[in-house]
Amino acid sequence: MNNFLSSVATILACVSFALLFIKSVFDYILKPQLKTWAMQELNVVQKDVEQENEKFLFLLLEPLKHDLIAFRESVDKAYIHDIQERATLKQEVLSLSLACQEIKHESFKLTQALKGDIKVQGAWGELVLENVLNSAGLRKDHEYTTQAEIKTEDGTLLRPDVMVHLPSQRHIIVDSKVSLTHYAQYVQDPSSTQGKEALKKHLSSIQTHIVQLGNKKYAQHADDTLSFILMFIPIESAFITAVKNDENLLKRALERNIILVSPTTLMAALKTVDHLWFSYRMNHNSKKIASQNSKILQALLNFLQDVDALGKQIEKMNKNYAMLVNKLSSGKDSVIIQIKKLSELSGNQSSLEAIPTRFDELLPSAEYDDHEINKET
To answer: Which residues pair with 174 in a beta bridge?
Structure first.
């Protein structure tokens, strides 16, 4: 038993030694070759993976690349456009600043002129008045006239600033010669003593102009003008200040057949005039349309009568035509039968072919006796 175990132990020891030897040989000879082969395969696989990754990244990033390029171009264009817009805006602001300075300078000159020059004040008032007239839809030399002449009994010529025409062949006179010198002094310092004194002079100036305008008596010298006159104050605040500080101003003006108006109140009155002209034109056009309709209706009636007369003539011609055709085809001695007889007797069939197509259908209905033809022959 011990010998057996000893033999088995010896065999196992030999096997173990053989395995260790094989392992040593494997490690020394085959492992480097296997490692080299594995590295080669790994490199091949790594290259394949890198190529696949490059393809994948290319497919993934290429659209993004185009989008980024397009975005950059868009940003560049926007930036350039923004620079151009800023340059244009800067130029516009500069131009606006220069224009404002020019307007300020002109306004200063106008203010100085309005304060001291009565003629300039009058011309400016007439300009404001004409702007109001045009804004209301009235046309110069149509619905209104400037500087019209009215001759008095003693030969004096009166020239109202504006004469507004009405559809009824009547006229409204508008006057704008109002001095605003004292009002300009008043608005500089309304609460001061000088300002209050300027206000009194402003009211007195308007009252004086009311009296002067009433004394001209336009209605007496021109029968076609209305009995009242519109006295135009071109500055709204000057009108409101005068009415507010003199409650009886409008009443005293009405007693002289004068109505004080500002740009706002005058616009309302002129809009009424414009509406009257619109209604007049509509009514006038309606009459023209009615007259034109009558002419068109009469022309249609005349046309129908001509058509009826033509129809009767056509009917008469049809009857005459039917009679002629009947004479050609009816009876034994009709023209159609005679033509056929002559053609057969002469042996000339071309004569039948020369008969117009519209008469071909009459030949079969033309009855005659062939026996009579042979008999006559």
So the answer is: 162, 230
